[in-house]
Fold:
Amino acid sequence: MKTESEMDVASPAEHLAGMEMDTSGTAYQNVAEYQGNTAHEPTCTPPADEDEAIIYGELIVLGTNGQLPGGDRGRRKSCFTLRKKKEATGVKPSDQHQVFPRASQSQTFNSKEHHSVSYTLPRNVVVVPYVHDPGTDMFQIGRSTEEPIDFVVMDIFPGTSIPTHQRSQQPQQSTISRFACRIVCDRNPPYTARIYAAGFDTSMNIVLGEKAPKWTIDKDGKRIFDGLTTNGVLIMQPKNGFSQSSEPTQWKETSVCGDIYRLRESRSAQMPGAKVDGDNNVLVNGTLIDLCGATLLWRSSSNVDCMPTPRHIDQLIHNLNLGRPQCPVGLTTLAFPRRNRATRETEKQPWVYLECGHVHGRIEWGNRGEEERMCPLCRSVGKYVPLWIGNEPAFYVDTGSPTHCFIPCGHVCSAKTALYWSRTALPHGTQAYNAACPFCATPLEGDPGYKKLIWQQPVD
Amino acid sequence: MAGLPRRITKETQRLLSEPVQGISATPDENNLRYFHVTINGPKDSPFEGGVFKLELFLPEEYPMAAPKVRFNTKIYHPNIDKIGRICLDILKDKWSPALQVRTVLLSIQALLSAPNPDDPLANDVADNWKRNEAAAIKTAREWTQKYAMSGGQ
Structure:
């Protein structure tokens, strides 16, 4: 298993190495274009520095559809590109650990120049100083908007990315940690990226409180402290990367030191799960990272070539519209708006009867109770919702035509993409696991949770 | 007529450009929701050779409500009464807005081929049809000759 996943991370190396040499930089352009079209900020200009042209990968927040509901703002956005930094920013644990009655008695802890992790025990505090690692870059993710956070991630509420969503959500208490996790990338090929629970705060400390699960293990004859954060950082590394043949695997938890454990009995239980020795914390293409309140998808840079781009998606929309699908009731032509115009319901908006998949325009007929309607074509009764194109290219496993939609949100994507996400259970709240639409985070209903669309072509 | 829905315009255009065999439907020049319809009696039915006149009206709610259709030519049929009203489920509770004038007229044509005396509108006709089908068919044929052929009224 280990060799397989290492092969998976080895491939970016060849690719990226090629990219550095290749002045036309096709692969890079893909990413640049991708960035420019999805983010609101004009971040698409390639950095002048050659080092910064190297991309380790991208993180995309599930439940966003090209941008955050309400728009991207600065470090708070739907997609974050991890680029090689000018100067190495990585840190690694030092060999030593220091024991103090209180953390504040540690110089490392008090110094804003030095990173440290403190493990609060009943009678004292163990401080592990971290040292600069010239071979790696570190990226921090969390809810905090403080400076140490590279990618600010807030809770995602199901359905908020749908333009017609009714914003009735009461502000809930967030379950995402302010300094949730770190990703550390090797600055040299194959640019392996690893994920660790917890991020360093503004004082460059990680403090595991008295209640956090923590323990010591022996590694290479040394006693090492490790622990988990309250809600933890869960990862799911799909088999076969992120492709048409991808298969979801079990969710596991990564520790502060980056070891892999089985899930705890409940999300924030005090007992860690069993250690999984064969697994590692390397991000492979398609790895999902759950921060309890938001889930991120990792796409490694080697795979941008086989990933649809915004242009692809516009082409797919264009092809669908060229067929001039008709509403069998209004006899009007239906059309999807181009990606960047899909911000409200349009007159030509296609609607679907989710029970049968028949696509119509918006009509008022056949109400059966509050939520259900009868399809004029086949009389099956079920929900009737507007269709929206899945605009976020990163969530597609292939570049197939948008033939299917998720139930009940009506997000349209390729058949294989629908299948993949319908089989991928995502942590939902602190207890439940549920497959969800990647474009809006709405939990899927029924089995399989998606429907093939049936379009009517014009008769004349 | 102002404000004619696109759907009605499109249906009318297609009815005129691609008429269904044995059926004609022409909108009235003063009311584009009112159609003058003729249906030829289907082959191998007691109505063969007859040309039946009907009127079809698209109500304001159309297509969310069914068209109103009536025979103007007298016809001896268990599902069509003396004043030309038609007993056909898709004109009532089985209406769907995905149906069109074209499909409605095709259904009426099919009803002429296959009378259904078990769901009658004209009870006397239906009784005859069930009691003595041969005699009923004979009467239907006579009525066709009398009312639905050229010269007849």
Q: What stands out?
A: Chain B touches chain A at residues 6-7, 10-11, 13-14, 17, 63-64, 96-99 (CB under 8 Å). The first strand of chain B starts at residue 23 and ends at 27.
